[in-house]
Amino acid sequence: MTTLTKTEDAPAPTGPESFLSVRDLKVQFSTEDGIVKAVDGLSFDVERGKTLGIVGESGSGKSVTNLTILGLHNPRSSTVDGEIVLDGKELVTATERELEQLRGNKMAMIFQDPLTALSPFYTVGRQLSEPYMKHRGASKKEARDRAIQMLEKVGIPQPKVRFDDYPHQFSGGMRQRAMIAMALMCDPDLLIADEPTTALDVTVQAQILDLLKDLQQEFGSAIIFITHDLGVISHMADDLLVMYAGRAVERGSVREVLHDPRHPYTWGLLSSMPRLDSDIDQQLTPIPGSPPSLLNPPSGCPFHPRCAFRDEVPGTLCTDVRPPLGEGRSTACHLTPEQKQTIFIDKIQPRLR
After folding, report:
1. What family is this (predicted)?
2. For the chain, which residues make up each domain, given as ranges?
3. Over the stretch 33-58, which tens digit does the pLDDT of each residue have?
4. 26 — alpha (psi -120 to 50), left (phi > 0) or beta?
5. In whole angstroms, what is the distance from residue 343 CA to residue 325 CA?
6. How far apart are CA 47 and CA 222, in angstroms?
7. Phi and psi at residue 220, in whole multiples of 5°?
8. Which residues, at least 6 apart from 185, have a Cβ–Cβ distance to it below 8 Å?
């Protein structure tokens, strides 16, 4: 059974502007091999009208975090601890009925693969209309009119005709636009986008990103944008959270994190990313090793087995002590601020030019 408890000593939200506040979130899954610590003590805030980007390798806990916010984790095999507060409403202790009233209404999600998220047995129009009728008590005609309006808003040609089409009759880009239209049907205050452009070509990807920014400006939604692509996040986000092994290792404004990164893992992500303005023979520097097993995560700093700079820290701090992540602009790393600045200027920055 799922255990739903609040952490008594979780720090208070950072300020009145926080529309979504997550404090000391822990999500664990029971498996045949043991307990998977998918999210391990995560805290962050999202403001109204702002976009929080979350980046990290596969298995870092990005998607699990946001499925838990929506209450879409499996209650039979998962344990959730901590605090999730959406506009004053505590979600961890909310009932399934309460969450159903919020999902698709006050908070919504754009899934990574619309072909699997959309049912092949129902028309796109029906799938857009039903949540609107449920949450707003609208008639079929009102829901149809609203769905056609939203399909037009996201750039679907001939929306009155396409309303009666099935998902397989849409192209990949059009299915993603339909997913965005579905998520925005009830004007949600929180929109979670889980790698919504991964399977799209570059031109369609740019159109979808611009569309999300325009719709956010129109509706004033808070957005959590999950991706592994730092180029995309630089275009979309106001603030950035870097996750590794279920934990946050760096956070700050998107400009601070991308232009003045302070954690070795963030350095690794940036060094392994190709740049359009670099030479064609630019050499990328991959992060050595593989992400740790969440069944048996390493002690101390979870990144220390892959970190090229752990020898710069005296003693066994990196291997024995988990570095904390403070509020605001911060990193979870035992390197001193002076060491971080020196390493970045001398060793990392030349790779990024």
Report:
1. Belongs to the ABC transporter superfamily.
2. 269-352
3. 889 999 999 999 999 899 999 999 88
4. beta
5. 20
6. 6
7. 70, 25
8. 104, 128, 131, 132, 146, 147, 150
